[in-house]
Amino acid sequence: MSDPAASVPRVTRADYVQEALAGLDRVAGTGVDPALPLYATTFVVVDLETTGGAPDGGGITEIGAVKVRGGEELGVLATLVNPGVPIPPFITVLTGITQAMLLPAPPIEQVLPSFLEFVADAVLVAHNAPYDVGFLKAACAKHGYRWPNPRVLDTAALARRVLTRDEVPNRKLGTLAAYFRTATQPTHRALDDAKATVDVLHGLIGRLGGHRVDTVGEAIEFARAVTPTQRRKRHLAEGLPKVPGVYIFRAADDRPLYVGTSGDIATRVRSYFTAAEKRARISEMLAAAERVEAVECAHSLEAEVRELRLIAAHAPPYNRRSKYPERQVWLKLTDEAYPRLSIVRDLAPTDSAYLGPFRSKQAAELAAAGFHDAVPLRQCTHRLSRRTTMPACALAELGRCPAPCEHRITPEEYDHRAAVPFRTATRDDPQVVVDALLARIEVLSAGQRYEEAAVVRSRLAAVLRAAVRMQRLAALTGIAELAAARPAARGGWELALVRHGRLAGAGVSPPGVHPRPTITAIRATAETVLPGHGPVPAATAEETERILSWLERPETRLVEMSAGWASPVAGAGRFRDLLAKAENGTSHQLSTERS
């Protein structure tokens, strides 16, 4: 026979902490498919006897485990364990295990390899599972064995969900054994208690059918603490497809309440009815929901785009993000003799110098303040004339404005000193603006005016963030048509047809088939997208950014393009590292950028 220890992985240091006792609702290992029917699931029912106290890596005096599947017993593991410490008298009275019985028994580090091999690829079952699992995890951590993190089913928790107080006064193992008339009665010995738990488990499984619980994953979730609303509305998740797409929770009047997306609609919607879902607003949404509508999509990108469009169209009350794309604003240079910066909702076809879109007016104002710090753009809102003058404001007296209102500067010189740097920074190279702001940060930092330097730093970040974003968007939206492919998880290719930054068509070519015919079919049925003005002429900025993220993945292949995809060589993108420092670093770190 082979040595069980040889197949059990060891770890170099203990990684167990006490909080593991409360961790049974975390994501379990992947050894058992949660969709496996209960009748086909292999369970290992375990019970421990201990010296009492908290799990510290020792204290186990006996292990009993029974492996079952489909009601048939597959194997048994039972052994006494020498804890290496004296047995408290009350434990001896309770269990009948004496010190003399444990002296010849193996220590836990010799028992663990066989036990871990016995529970491999099975669902672990215990009565009051946090206690038993806590001792086992602590022992593995102390002696260098990696805990396999199996899926765990607690019969005590399951009984609390299945049985009412009218049926049993409590959920103790002895009470449940009597109720289900188990063949073996619990005796506070590990193997007897494990065998009794097996019969209790089978009795509880027999009751789960009435609750529409048929798989091991559903049984584990059913045992957890879910709200009455989640339990009552669980049927809404039935019959949904296991494909990528969008799901819509609808109210009784068919009004969309919440829109989401997933690579597996059925699995994602089911998660809303489990103990893992604890968001208060989602609980409120579930109470109002009457049905779930599924929109199947070719792949994840199409699902993400459809989600954005549905949220923008319906503004569901329980979605927090992407609801109001029309609230975006732009920072533009006005068309007049002495232009200034203006925050507007929409761009006109005649607008030629602009930056955005910004997600809020406050973000646009922060970027505008950055330009005002860097270049002598006037900040007043008067419409100035080339012929008549107006009294200058305080900014002119402070040297913060060249006073075009008093004609102290010609329109040509103003354009060269103030307007051209803005146009250049937004379209091509923001170097002049960046240098001016870094110089100001350096002066403020040298004078120990750190709070003011931090304000300028935030303005620099706002300018760079908007410039990088706009130039990145414009590079894609300037392409009339682009076809791209990405390997699908199950073979074949995920295909996307993008026109002016908008997803016009999507599909999947089957494995072993050349994707070209599928691309041709997608093109023939794709949405017609007309060119427009600005960096996002045909879609929201968020949609184009989702497409960009998909296209920029290493595995994505560009198939066809109507024009080249390029960004300015000296564009804002080369300041990404500086932007990261501005967002996360200190003013002193930024001042070194100029040296």
Automatic annotation (TrEMBL):
Keywords, comma-separated and alphabetical: Exonuclease, Hydrolase, Nuclease
One MF term in the entry's GO annotations: exonuclease activity
Span of domain GIY-YIG: 242-320
InterPro entries in the cross-refs: DnaQ, GIY-YIG_endonuc, GIY-YIG_endonuc_sf, GIY-YIG_UvrC_Cho, Ribonucl_H, RNaseH-like_sf, RNaseH_sf, UvrABC_protein_C
Cellular component annotations (GO), alphabetically ordered: excinuclease repair complex
GO BP field: DNA replication; nucleotide-excision repair
Record-linked CDD domains: DEDDh (cd06127), GIY-YIG_UvrC_Cho (cd10434)
Presence of the UniProt keyword Nuclease in the record: yes
SUPFAM superfamilies: GIY-YIG endonuclease (SSF82771), Ribonuclease H-like (SSF53098)
Listed PANTHER family: UVRABC SYSTEM PROTEIN C (PTHR30562:SF1), UVRC/OXIDOREDUCTASE (PTHR30562)
Protein name: DNA polymerase-3 subunit epsilon
Lineage of the species this protein comes from: Bacteria, Bacillati, Actinomycetota, Actinomycetes, Micromonosporales
